[in-house]
Amino acid sequence: MIRVRVVGVALDPAQQHVILLSPADPLADGERVLPVWIGAQEAMSILVAIEGTGSPRPLAHDLMTAMLGELSASVSRVEITHLDEGTFHARVVLDTPAGPRTFDARPSDAIALGARVDAPLWVAETVFAEAGVPRDAVELDGEEPDTGRGDEERVAEFRRFLDDVDPDDFQG
């Protein structure tokens, strides 16, 4: 498995939300990022967690976090495990008083929950190999990829990729 981090949430040309995951260790597969299409509510929930901004009322993932705390359980890791006919599958691994427990989840929910508790996020190498896109197609974290191309060309290349890809191929 490759440890990853969330590097952004964006809209594709069809106004679908996309979360971008990048290897935490560039040596793992630092030349690629993994786009995962998610719903608008999940995108908002992930952004709230990553940016540390609160919401006026608890979101579903805030409720899950509070419940886990009251039950003396914690999220030990989030894993995107495989692709099945274009759909990502994930699991949340919990540490509980009764021992470790694993739950299947949509990747967007697993990431939103994991982001709230700073749990490590992992992606199976086979998923990254199958669904990853070139890192230089996007600008990550304000870094300038060393491609010798200007911003406009990189943005145009990423837009071409998004125009050609079908979100149903990467449902999360």
Automatic annotation (TrEMBL):
Gene Ontology terms for molecular function: nuclease activity
Record-linked SUPFAM superfamilies: Hypothetical protein TM0160
Annotated signal peptide: none
Family annotation (InterPro entries): BFN_sf (IPR036104), Bi_nuclease_dom (IPR003729)
Top-level lineage group: Bacteria
Pfam families according to UniProt: BFN_dom
Gene3D superfamilies: Bifunctional nuclease domain
Ranges where the BFN domain occurs: 1-135
Protein name: Bifunctional nuclease family protein
Organism: Microbacterium testaceum (Aureobacterium testaceum)
Organismal lineage: Bacteria, Bacillati, Actinomycetota, Actinomycetes, Micrococcales
